[in-house]
Amino acid sequence: MKRPTGSCTRGLAIAAIAAIALAGAALPASDALASGATYGREARLAGATAVLPNAENEWNYNFGVGFGTAPGYFGDKDYDTHLSPLIDIDWRQRVFLSTQRGLGAVLFRNSSFRMGGRLTYDQGRDNGDSSFIRRLPDVDPSVEAGLFFENYSAGWRIWGDARKGLQSEGHNGLLGSLGVDRAGRISDRASIVAGASVTAASKRYNDAYFGVPRNTAGFAVAGFTPEAGVRDVGAHLNFIFQVTDQIYFTVDATLNLLLGDPSKSPIVREDLPFYVGTSVGVRF
Q: Quick check: 20 pLDDT over 70?
């Protein structure tokens, strides 16, 4: 059943996002801080990459798999199960190769701040997977180039991320996020990360993922072309438990509230998409 989209529901959603963002504030500080953004497929493995690489090691490896439920596409009301493998290799906290974080390098770093660039991969959208949008053109996969920054302070992390699609067959747009996380330790082996973010997108990105070409069969509107602007606000909550010094498992949840033109798109059947899942892996 589709949730009501009135002002009451939106108000409750915003309140829930704010509550999640502040949930960790009263916890003792921890060295666990999520390293992924809170949108798309990155969010599904945020808990698995929440523990920062060991600064004493030249190389750090993190292998795992995540499993959970999420919408068939961002804005779909039908939910599917998703399996997400994780390979994350880090060299001296300066260069990383990851199925979650992409291929990147830290260009500037001090004791509390770092910034760098990375290449990521947008998997696009196969509209044939959904009977509701199967008449729309697919969004092809695309390599993205981007910049990121992270600032750490006593269990808090403020982060920003911007990425641009490089292939005209993909979304070929610009996507940017700004967020804040709080990590807290609840036992010797268990930590919680809570955070919130806001994501904005360019006209090209929004048109690729939320637009409807004129006179598309199956839609009452003649066409829909969204403008640039805020795409959503989101929140995430990650529970991380160290079974041993190397083996861990997580429980992860994200909630997004679509805003602006994306929320008005005729393909959006659910403007409060969420993800709930778990992951297990090994670090060494």
A: no
